[in-house]
């Protein structure tokens, strides 16, 4: 008998790649993307960073994992097609659990030997770029968010089971970056990916891992995101831009012809495109200025 394997596509759905850089003489950082496999702006950012790091002297150690959830990447879904779990609710995982639990366990173990962790995600095609941090609980995260220099920094709700949340609880210095794109359909916002790669470059220069000029970027801290939901089925039409600042009372759009206004001054994190919304669907996300809290 003879058995031959025929590979019709090289994408593996049960393994992930780790790209390692550096001489180990300095800080250690893990940069992860694709925990939600359809969040392709994040995956593209990680791939841009891998290309950048290939031509740089790295004083320290950097691990980049561009596709943390290969099965959900291949199926372009947030959750795994194996067990329909959202992996970013189950860290630190379980070596004897379902496929997503096992994968979370392996990712968790692979990211334990670093001091810093940046997990890159997407917040939808109607979203904007921002850093999410547990800066109220861990004030030292403010300095790291400033090192990234992404202008909008938002306090995370701290949902348990997230890679960055559980990492912070173990004493690691972990942040999330949210980027526009991803859902639906796994689309890439190429400009956002390029800007995020620049932010990661700034961050690595600030940590002393890469060589380069230090740039001082102005960041603003905001509280948790407040989500404005459609109260019943109806037509939402946007009249603002995601990523823009807003004053209290600022017109975000209309719902069934009635104004939808910002409940406080802050930043518009998400704004739905024009669509018929059903009850409970998001029309907008707004985060208040930290100083107003
Ligand atoms: Zn995500």
From TrEMBL:
Keywords: Hydrolase, Metal-binding, Zinc. Pfam families: AstE_AspA_cat. Residues 25-204 form the Succinylglutamate desuccinylase/Aspartoacylase catalytic domain. The keyword Hydrolase applies. InterPro entries: AstE_AspA_cat, N-alpha-Ac-DABA_deacetylase. SUPFAM superfamilies: Zn-dependent exopeptidases. Its cofactor is Zn(2+). This is Succinylglutamate desuccinylase/aspartoacylase family protein. It comes from Brevibacillus ruminantium.
């Amino acid at each position: 008998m003879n058995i031959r394997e025929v590979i019709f596509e090289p994408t593996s759905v049960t393994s992930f790649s780790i790209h390692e850089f550096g001489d180990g003489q300095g800080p250690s950082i893990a940069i992860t993307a694709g925990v939600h496999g359809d969040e392709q702006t994040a995956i593209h950012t990680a791939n841009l960073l891998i290309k950048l790091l290939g031509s740089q002297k790295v004083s320290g150690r950097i691990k980049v994992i561009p596709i943390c959830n290969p099965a959900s990447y291949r199926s372009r879904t947030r959750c795994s097609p194996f067990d329909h779990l959202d992996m970013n609710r189950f860290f630190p995982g379980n070596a004897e659990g379902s496929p997503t639990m096992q994968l979370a366990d392996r990712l968790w173990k692979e990211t334990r030997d670093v001091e810093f962790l940046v997990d890159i995600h997407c917040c939808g095609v109607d979203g904007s770029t921002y850093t999410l941090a547990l800066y109220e609980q861990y004030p030292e995260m403010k300095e790291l968010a400033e090192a990234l220099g992404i202008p909008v920094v938002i306090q995370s709700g701290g949902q348990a089971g997230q890679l960055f949340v559980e990492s912070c609880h173990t004493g690691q210095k972990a942040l999330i970056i949210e980027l526009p794109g991803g859902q639906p359909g796994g689309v890439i916002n190429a400009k956002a990916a390029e800007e995020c790669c620049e932010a990661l470059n700034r961050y690595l220069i600030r940590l002393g891992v890469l060589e380069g000029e230090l740039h001082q970027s102005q960041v603003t801290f905001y509280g948790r995101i407040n989500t404005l939901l459609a109260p019943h089925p109806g037509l939402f039409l946007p009249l603002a831009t995601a990523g823009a600042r807003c004053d209290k009372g600022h017109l975000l759009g209309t719902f069934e012809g009635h104004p939808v206004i910002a409940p406080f001054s802050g930043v518009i994190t998400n704004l739905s495109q024009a669509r018929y919304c059903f009850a409970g669907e998001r029309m907008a996300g707004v985060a208040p200025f930290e100083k107003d809290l």
